[in-house]
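User: Predict the structure for this protein chain, please.
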Amino acid sequence: ARSARLAARLVDRGVRPGDVVAVAVPRSAALTLGHLAVLRAGAVCLPVDPDHPPVRVRALLADAAPAAVLTTPDGPAVLRETGAAVLVLDAEDVSGADAEPVTRPGALPGPLPDSPAYLIHTADPEGRPRGVVLAHRGLVNRLLWLQDSCATGPGDRILHKAPEDDDVAVWELLAPLVAGAAQVTVPPGGARDMVALARQIRRDAVTTAHFAPSLLEAFLAEPEAAHCTGLRRVLVSGEPVPPGLGDRFRSHLPEAELRVLHGSAEVSSDALVWSVGDGSDGAYAPAGRPAPNTRALVLDAHLTPLPPGSPGELYVGGVQLAYGYRGRAGLTAERFVADPYGPPGSRLHRTGDLARVTRDGVIELLGRTDDVLTLDGRRIEPGEVERVLAEHPAVAEVAVTARPGPTGGDALVAYVVPVDPAAPADASALREHAAAVLPHHAVPAHCVTLDALPCTAGGQIDRAALPDPQHSTARAPRNDVERTLCDLFAELLGVESVSIDDSFFDLGGHSLLATRLVSRVRSLFGIELPFRDIFDAQTVVALAERVVGSSVGGRAALVPMERPG
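Assistant: Here is the predicted structure, written as structure tokens:
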């Protein structure tokens, strides 16, 4: 009744079928209400992460030209610059008990199966918004085959923790409602605090959750994850699954099922599925077999199917295929091609994944055919990051790539050639410059200054020859708390030594490593350090003050002691 009333308000404000409506609402009941209202009005839902930099939100809205914007009273001010009708969701909209069903004839036109449902934006090398238009038919197919495959129903409780603008969030929002299950929402900022997340999963009896593989590794590293015995199934996607993850998962949660999903927004998020069982880990990451009503082919440059074991590019087609990129006809024609093996008029999406098919029909991922990176479960275009950093006045040239981090995952590294070698840009200044435009997952963890970028004989940047990041130290620790934190920074970041003035994030830290730092601080000092403190107090000296302050507020203050020889 509440979503119908809100949908009627949208229609009264001039929203018509096919119009775009932006939903800039944090994870909450209001977010679910907003999505349902847009879909019931027959409009296209544009999820917007309210925490993104204003520059990015402004560009996204300028590209999508929404007819209306749904937000909360504390929503970003940039949302009111579009000229579109702005509807503010208040407490009465979300929880009002007096909401009555809309009975006016024709008040809610609703969608048709082929009507566009969502506009999901993905990374673009030029930095321009790249909106993928998804149809209701494809989303329904994905919801139903996952519901059937996972046997979810009214007894399940599905966790909703993905970023608001992620295509995974669409499934987390709608899957519980389709299956008659309960939706358990993680509060804003809580998706990366693995201690709080594990406690919520246990407290709220969550049965189904989704993780990126790297986030699942961080979750399993948290001791409290072993107590989440109510989990029946865990879905992973967004990155290749590292070897051994299945074994580590089973050792922590032996009663739960682990399923690997693979796809992208261009194919309604996930089109391949693989159930991880004993002996499933091999030399290459399995992407799985096609989902119902989807097709997956490994083809060569001439669109010829390759025999088992031969590497080629992965193409995906079927009912879940998106319409293309909104307002980008050239890019759509490049990435969505005619299917020579399907029904007349059918198409395939060029995924950019380098893959092969095993003799058993399982598709394995070998890498990428382009420079696209997937870190923390999010797709990153190095070209977009390079374009942003190149706009800094002190930067002459820049190259962005991924390097293995100390925990086995990859970290984003920017290699910068300064305009003036005598006055290179500070790493912190470069990261702040990038953070003002890019989402947090696309901000480089390291910024390395070089005299020149290495090049191949053909004049291309030789990314393999780029050096690993190096670090220098300054002030040494002055007490046991600072000394312990310096050792922790060095251990987690994979560096030899750390000064008390070094920033955790300037040395290559990211949110996954921050969760491990919080866990180690808790075990060593016996305190509950808020996850946000790692971002607010990034240096050893600042974090040491938080640690000592937490100790004083809880147990006795930490007192340095003489160590026996």
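The domain at 381-465 is CATH 3.30.300.30 (GMP Synthetase; Chain A, domain 3).
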